[in-house]
Design brief:
The protein is mainly alpha-helical. It has two domains: 94 residues; 58 residues, no CATH class. The chain is 56% helix and 8% strand.
């Protein structure tokens, strides 16, 4: 991974976007705690983030193999350029150019669990408050990670 990489910043931003959507869903659940037949909403995005990280790791691996693997020097007959590295295949080059983050979209899911409420509402206020607290803590952790990344970049720019 590069010293000045925006990968961490991009992934934390996606995570924070997902957590923001989750907070909206939890707020909606809390607001509808007394609404008859209301079914609570959840937001799922963690598996998408894990897949994005795996794809980015694969890109890093391909880049590493192309820059580290020794290939005897060859001379380009047209330019006279001497190459000491492996040229990526067409498939690898296309994969390296692809945007692994473009399809990211947190999914809203309706919880069909039949709650204990007689009116058909399955929102449990205690659970929602716990989820709200957990989501807030996760958001704080990601924002601290992003802040550190920007602080590091600022130090590099200033030459510290």
């Amino acid at each position: 991974m590069d010293l000045i990489s925006s990968r961490t910043i991009e992934i934390t931003k996606l995570g924070m976007d997902g957590l923001t959507d989750r907070q909206h869903a939890i707020s909606s659940n809390i607001a509808n705690v007394m609404t008859p037949d209301y079914q609570r909403k959840e937001v799922a995005f963690e598996s998408q983030l894990a897949e994005i990280i795996e794809r980015e790791d694969l890109k890093d691996y391909i880049k590493g193999q192309n820059s580290i693997k020794y290939v005897p020097p060859n001379v380009d007959v047209f330019t006279g350029e001497v190459r000491h590295y492996r040229i990526p295949t067409k498939q690898e080059a296309a994969y390296l150019k692809s945007n692994t983050m473009e399809d990211y979209k947190p999914q809203y899911v309706t919880d069909i669990y039949n709650g204990s409420n007689i009116d058909g509402n399955n929102v449990e206020l205690e659970r929602e408050m716990m989820d709200l607290s957990k989501t807030g803590t996760q958001f704080l952790m990601l924002s601290n990670l992003e802040r550190r990344q920007f602080t590091n970049l600022q130090g590099i720019i200033r030459g510290q």
